[in-house]
Amino acid sequence: QAVWPNDRWRRKGRAPCACLEERRMSDHDVTSLVLRSSRKLSYDGVLEVLDELLPDAYDFVYLPWPKLAIINFTSREHAQLARRLLQGSRHGELDVRTVKEAIHQGLAKNLAVYCSKEDWRNKDEGAPRVFAEGRQIALEEALEIFVSDELLEQVQRRRQEMRTEEPHLSEAVGSAQGSDQGIIYVNGPIDMSQI
Q: For position 189, what pLDDT does the model report?
């Protein structure tokens, strides 16, 4: 269902222009985007496209699902440019269907959410790729540099609260999707990192 900014668009029978979403995004510090592709993604393929289009403009890339990428850009302007360049486009293996604002914003928050999972150290191959000063760094090093103990504890506490508050949801989602699936849809988005 379309989201109409006001009744004026509906009366004229037109959809809002694409620039409205960009304007909404520019109203606050959005640096993390979710890209949905119609093709299966790989880290090598996504990083190749990012290096071609926006070299050194990103610091976090995570592929929680085969056709989903979460990317944090180093600035709001880079995120806006990425949205314009990638929305509905095809570059290498990236056949981008949609680009949306991610639930968690910023390198530190995305790292904290990922590293708050009990088994995050056991997922080397599927782990996010983190970059500092143009070079990839180890996840443990990134965690030490960018994530405060306070932020990590806050995210872990929130995850535990969600399990306590909604145990039936945690069980249903866990059994249906596994423990590291990112976001699923059951009558709306559910952020698995919050469970």
A: 47
pLDDT, residue 109, reads 94
DSSP string computed for 127-150: SPEEEETTEEE-HHHHHHHH--HH
The pTM is what?
Answer: 0.71
Torsion angle (degrees, nearest 10) of CA 187, 192, 194, 195: 90
Apex 146 CA angle, 144 and 151, nearest 5: 90
Q: What is the pLDDT of residue 118?
A: 75
Across the chain, which has 195 residues, the per-10-residue mean pLDDT values are 38 42 56 94 94 94 94 96 90 87 94 85 83 92 92 89 67 38 40 43
The answer to whether the beta carbons of residues 82 and 99 sit under 8 Å apart is yes
Look-up of token digits 């959410």: 113
The two three-digit tokens of residue 116, written as one number: 């708050």
* Torsion (CA) 47, 194, 112, 131 in degrees, nearest 10: 10
Nearest 10 degrees: CA dihedral of 26, 142, 65, 29? -10
Residue 162: partners with Cβ closer than 8 Å, 6 or more residues away: 169, 170, 194, 195
Residue type, 34: V
Q: What is the CA radius of gyration of the chain?
A: 18
